[in-house]
Known about the structure:
Blueprint: E1 2-12, H1 16-23, H2 29-32, E2 39-41, E3 53-58, E4 61-72, E5 77-82, E6 91-102, E7 105-116, H3 121-144
Antiparallel strand pairs: 1-7, 2-3, 3-4, 4-5, 5-6, 6-7
Amino acid sequence: MHPRTLVRSLVVPADPDTVWALVGGFAGLGDWHPHVPPATVEDGADPELPGAVRAFTLDGTVVARERLLARDPAARSYRYTLLEPLALPVEEYVATLAVTGHPDGAELRWTASYRAPDALVPKVEAAFGDGVYATGLDAVRQRLS
């Protein structure tokens, strides 16, 4: 398995703090992403503190679990890891969602590092990069434009 990087970003014509207010809550991904179900934070943990685990459930089945590794509201970013690989056998998956200032508003950047065999990379790019990241970023742009 080789180290990989996945990156999707776009510029939103809105103030960075406004964008962060929408996307910055670790437990709130399902509130703004059109293809992600609402998350449940396990064990009553504070969803804004490292160590919190969010679980996504479809039809009563947990389809993904992610642990918050770091959250920095001042820098408008959070980092998390995938606890169980979904249908794709990736390893060491760590993602970051960040909002920074841009001359045209705010840049919203979603990145991940992971390990996967060469043959799996196109599937990861399609599933996570396009299906999750790009779709979510576009939903934010539509909502805030």
